[in-house]
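User: quick one - fold this with zinc ion bound?
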Amino acid sequence: MTEKETELRVSKIENGTVIDHVTAGEALRVLVILGIDGSEGQPVSVGMNVPSDRLGRKDVVKVEGMELSQEEVDVLSLLAPDATINIIRNYEVIEKSRVDRPESVVGVLTCPNTNCITNAGEPVETYFTVTDGGVQCRYCETIIREDITDHIEP
Ligand code: CTP
Ligand code: ZN
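Assistant: Sure. Structure tokens for the protein plus zinc ion:
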């Protein structure tokens, strides 16, 4: 089956955002980044391991009525560096962009080190520098390599 045929499994949306070309297996983490657990009531479609010409297999996440913040796109890029963000209005793709790996992620992740200044109840925003191996806390140098989504601020 071609990509187009299989995509019929996940229907087109009227207004919202399609996150396409997500690394296969990362769709559920993408939902965590977006803070989506289904309780908000908007339609959400997830395709997993959909055949893709470019990636072999990919995940796709379609969310009605939602546009992403730059912070969300930045964290997304860490899990899904090849993702394409498509903004849909009235069934048309009105904007398409690739995610870019940011140099830093500010105020989105929590530091796993309980002794870090950012966990001391001080008004200090978290700040992680993005490196090839993961993200590193600017204050205590703790590195988060995997399971970045476990460290998203509630
Ligand atoms: N899409 C959607 N609802 C719409 C329009 C598009 O869900 N009303 C989805 C398509 O299924 C596809 C993505 O948004 O997953 C991008 O659409 P489009 O640009 O038309 O597809 P391609 O040209 O295949 O995209 P690309 O070149 O980025 O691979
Ligand atoms: Zn820290």
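One thing worth noting: The chain has a mean pLDDT of 90.
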